[in-house]
Amino acid sequence: MARPDPRPQRRAQGELETQVLTVLHTADAPVTAAWVQERLDAELAYTTVMTVLSRLLEKQAVTRVREGRSFVWSPAADEAGLAALKMRKVLDREQDRRAVLASFITALPEDDEQLLRDLLDQATDESAG
Fold first, then answer.
1. What is the CATH number of domain 15-75?
2. How confident is the model at residue 71 (pLDDT cuts 50, 70, 90)?
């Protein structure tokens, strides 16, 4: 009988960033890294939470403001922006972006496909104007 692996399971790439962003979205105001750490399900070191927040800051997914001797953190986007960030992360992991996007589009319900076409047309019009 095989013994269970004593090592903790590794998280999928970006999973911890998504968890931190999700926690930030539950806050009513900018919060400290310690606040985020307390609300995450996993027992993470404060330094780990700070590293994740710093990476998210580099990706412009969060903002920070100095408050006293530390920083308070906020998500840079709303829930829709968070969903878009998740979608970009999935796309960034794939080798053939064209195939992934083509598969995504063909799997969309007709209404969503039309909405996407309208949004792309609108974006094209705004960038040309």
1. 1.10.10.10
2. very high
